[in-house]
Design goal:
heterodimer; A: 114 residues; mainly beta; 4-stranded antiparallel beta sheet; B: 111 residues
């Protein structure tokens, strides 16, 4: 168990809808990362937060947004969903958010857009 | 793409044999990490090697890094059925703010 908790584990929704994925980092970790894993794109970095502030941004679509709350949990909001958004979404955390730090991953949220 | 590439894409071996996976990348790095992913689960960090290191060991794992060739290898010795998983390299690239993951090697260890 990595100590990173993600909910829900599975999500099935329709095109055009909006969903929220939730992540609680390991106790004491200040930084949270979101990754998208799909068969054709591999593991893609979306966004990183450190202590409530956005630190780095990757291939995150404008339809997607995220935030990290004062209690350090994070949410990833996906809106106007398309079939191609179906993927496994991972949250990871690290102690300080320093570059190259090892990451602890949650078990992921499997999103299916029908 | 800034992603690394693992080779082979898939590897099937008998229990007790050694498994070697390779990772190639394109830019300068500060460190390289290897992660394991069991089917449908989260990634688990295995080992980190810094750019000024050439070899590192952790239990049955041996990682090498050749920065001149921009490549790394992960050797798992005396493999077990429980080693069946996908293995990813991740690079901390100079000038970038996040880890870039490779495409992964799917390892199957046959009991």
């Amino acid at each position: 168990d990595s100590g990173v908790t993600q909910t829900p584990k599975h999500l099935i929704t329709a095109t055009g809808q909006r969903v929220t994925l939730r992540c609680s980092p390991r106790s004491g970790d200040l930084s949270v990362y979101w990754y998208q894993q799909s068969l054709d794109q591999g593991l893609q970095f979306l966004i990183q937060y450190y202590n409530g502030e956005e630190r780095a941004k990757g291939n995150i679509l404008e339809r997607f947004s995220a935030q990290q709350f004062p209690d350090l949990h994070s949410e990833l909001n996906l809106s106007s969903l398309e079939l191609g958004d179906s993927a496994l979404y991972f949250c990871a955390s690290s102690a300080t958010g320093a570059r190259g730090e090892k990451l602890f991953f949650g078990s992921g949220t499997q999103l299916s857009v029908l | 793409s800034q992603q690394g590439e693992e080779d082979p894409q898939a590897l099937s071996i008998q229990e007790g044999e050694n498994a070697t996976m390779n990772c190639s990348y394109k830019t300068s790095i500060n460190n390289l990490q290897w992660y394991r992913q069991n089917s449908g689960r989260g990634l688990v960090h295995l080992i980190l090697i810094r750019s000024n290191e050439r070899e590192k060991h952790s239990g049955r794992l041996r990682v090498t890094l050749d920065t001149s060739k921009k490549s790394s290898s992960l050797l798992i010795t005396a493999s077990r059925a429980a080693d069946t998983a996908s293995y990813f390299c991740a690079t901390d690239q100079t000038g970038a703010n996040n880890l870039f993951f490779g495409t992964g090697t799917r390892l199957t260890v046959i009991p």
